[in-house]
Design goal:
single chain; 218 residues; alpha/beta; Rossmann fold; six-stranded parallel β-sheet; 6 strands; 42% helix; binds flavin mononucleotide
Length: 218
């Protein structure tokens, strides 16, 4: 499987970055192809603004969707956005790796969706978009004792972005995975989280990932 991991965390030593690394290693080990978009590492500009559209459909009123479609028609989409779209269409599974901030994804990831999910290419009337592809939200949040209860609450919090940004492009949105692991997590707590993640990944992607093999990666 071709897997794109989109990471939205400012710290390359965070638990989120560790989960990105773990997924990349585990999937590669199992024979899958993995690419990453590390949004902070790439200094991705999450703010959509008129200057990104040198050829304007409407020079007076800036309407993002209209200008996106015009940029596609005129071949003037920014290289930053085109590169991300190329990765999206390459992928069969997109993993969104992020911490829950105020019941939502970090602004850099929301902005990535605003800019990269381009009207007329990724979604839109008569557009096949990302159909046939899957999306997995891999989310860290504050410690919580009751997984199922907290998972349901966070799914409800994330519902607007799931039902609009992810489902409109025809992505198949899989059951998210949540990690309620504190920043001060012990090695055992992290190991348990990684094992749970490996199982989920092997359920989704298939491949020969065994607990025995994983020990060498921890
Ligand atoms: C600005 C901000 C907002 C947060 N909002 C929430 C929240 O709404 N719900 C929650 O469970 N945790 C919240 N947290 C805690 C983070 O989700 C948690 O620290 C993070 O997932 C831990 O992962 P990390 O160690 O990789 O940063 C918030 C943290 C920050 C910095």
């Amino acid at each position: 499987m071709n897997v794109l991991i989109v990471l939205a965390h400012p710290d390359s030593k965070s638990f989120n970055a560790a989960l990105r690394d773990f997924a990349a290693d585990t999937l590669t080990y199992a024979g899958h192809q993995v690419r990453t978009s590390d949004l902070y590492g790439m200094k991705f500009d999450p703010v959509a603004h008129p200057a990104q559209f040198p050829s304007r459909a409407d020079p007076v009123h800036f309407r993002l969707q209209r200008e996106q479609r015009h940029a596609v028609e005129t071949g003037t989409l920014s290289t930053e956005v085109s590169a991300e779209i190329e990765k999206l269409f390459w992928a069969e599974l997109v993993i969104f790796q992020f911490p829950l901030w105020w019941g939502a994804m970090p602004a850099i990831l929301k902005g990535w969706l605003d800019r990269v999910f381009v009207s007329g290419v990724v979604y839109g009337s008569g557009v096949e978009g990302l159909s046939g592809r899957k999306a997995l939200l891999s989310v860290t949040a504050s410690p919580c004792d009751a997984y199922a209860e907290c998972a349901e609450r966070i799914k409800a919090e994330l519902h607007p972005v799931i039902s609009n940004a992810l489902r409109l492009p025809n992505l198949e949105v899989l059951e998210p995975i949540f990690f309620f692991v504190p920043a001060t997590a012990t090695v055992i707590e992290r190991e348990t989280a990684f094992r749970r993640y490996a199982l989920r990944l092997s359920e989704i992607c298939g491949g020969d990932v065994h607990a025995q093999d994983m020990r060498t990666m921890l």
